[in-house]
Amino acid sequence: MYKKIIVPIAMDQLEHGESVLGIAEKLIDDEGEIVLLNVVEDLNAYAQGYMIVDFPLEMIEESRRHAVKTLEALKAKHGIRGRIEIRTGGAAGTINALAKEENADLVIIASHRPGLIDYFIGSTASRVVSHCPCAVLVDR
């Protein structure tokens, strides 16, 4: 049983995220905590040098509000004892940083079958597995 599990959930993969959350519920200690994490990608960080148009701050804030509302509903639906974290940045680096900050025992991350783009830039799950300071369970 684990004391602290981080469950990153992408808003465009809610069904898979809910499945991963079910796994976390089975593995968490009676006194443990599940941290539901959503990472809002900072698109402006990627856009530098490639695009002239900045993404409006309101767009990022709306993504954050949507994530909080969605994860709160998911937390209530499953009766999760834990909390929600919304962070901005690159997904893999942010997941790994939170795992280190929280001294997490486990990260459970959903993965998809790799597509062509994954072979060029790598998938989030593979970068989390490669650099995470704790155990990682990848659910496909």
Largest sheet entry? 5 strands, parallel
Radius of gyration (CA) equals: 15 Å
Question: Which bin fits the share of residues in helices?
Answer: 40-55%
Total strands:
5
Shape label: globular
**Helical/strand content category:** alpha/beta
- DSSP helix count? 6
Strand content: 25-35%
Q: How far apart are the termini? A: 21 Å
Spans of at least 5 consecutive residues whose pLDDT stays below 50 are none
**Which strand order spans the largest sheet, edge to edge or round the barrel?**
3-2-1-4-5
Order of helices and strands: EHEHHEHEHHE
Mean pLDDT: 86
What would you note in describing this structure?
The longest helix is centred in the middle third of the chain and has 22 residues, at 57-78. Helix content is 48%, strand content 26%. α4 runs parallel beside α6 (124-131). The chain is globular and about 45 Å long. It has 6 helices and 5 strands, in the order βαβααβαβααβ. The protein has a 5-stranded parallel β-sheet with strand order 3-2-1-4-5, with helices on both faces. It is of the alpha/beta class and 140 residues long. The model has no long low-confidence stretch (mean pLDDT 86). Residues 1-138 form the UspA domain. InterPro entries: Rossmann-like_a/b/a_fold, Universal_stress_UspA, UspA. Belongs to the universal stress protein A family. This is Universal stress protein. Pfam families: Usp.
